[in-house]
What does this fold into?
Amino acid sequence: MHYFCQYLIEMKTGAIDIHQPLGHEVKRLILVYNQSAADYLIKSLNRNEGIHQARLCCKRIRSILRLIKPALSAKHFKEANQFYRIQAGKLSEVRDFTALSDAAEKLTGSMHSEASKHYLTVFIHQTRTGRIRRLRSFSKSDVRQQVIDDFMKYPVQIKELILNSGSEKTLKTGIERSYRIARRGFLVAEYALNAVQLHEWRKAAKYLWYMLEAVSFLHPTTNKAYIMGLKRLCALLGTYHDLELLQRAIETDLHIPKINQAGIRGSIRNQMKRIRQKALLEGALLFLSKPRQFSDTLFGSYRLKTSHCNKGKC
It folds into this structure.
């Protein structure tokens, strides 16, 4: 079993325990992900996967901060959110090389021209070579050690976080706000052809996904099904983003003949169009409810269950 999974099991759960003080639970989760991010960079034998997982830990922490934002001072939220955004940014370059090579590999099978296939094969080799160089450089660099040191020192600031309101109200407000942002992203994406706007929608959907995992005590069956839908949506939008990165890389490559470039770009555009359509269909199901209705459904089910338990009917 992967040491991170084992770590979460040892910490009992990767979700908030509603029976514990919210401030305690929030700090516990952030500390788990903070330590795990450092562990990934220190211990992972697969450096690329270690960097990827460390970035995910940062995103999960930022989702928790958004979840409890209504109960945090503006200063505490800004400082903590900025810290983890900066650390994730320092780890992002290697991820871009991985995204490019993966997107090019998936695209190769759809190409009919042997010349285009050959170009993509060379492109994949070059990006993987570039990724290996970056990994080696990063592993030996001061940046890697600085990121690890920053993670190891930051628990002092985490322990100083103070929440100034009750748990259920805070969580409900945080989820409703996150859902509203993700739903707005969907409504914009219905008419937007801009890859940046679809990427923003993906980020909002991911924050909502991670939040709902943190509050798994809310209507577990409905919550789990909804999270699976968000995962499918984010996978589609992630592929869309990777193809957009690939398209930009090919457009600026002076070594590819124009006729091959046109064929590859056309194939990329067709795939992006299909993926966008699938994402919009998924989004139409996920964001059918209005924000208040969505949060009321989640918390209403939890209150009903709690009421039955208090009456001895669990």
Notes: Confidence is low (pLDDT under 50) at residues 1-12, 306-314. The radius of gyration is 22 Å. Residues 30 and 187 are 32 Å apart (CA to CA). DSSP finds 13 helices and no strands in the chain.
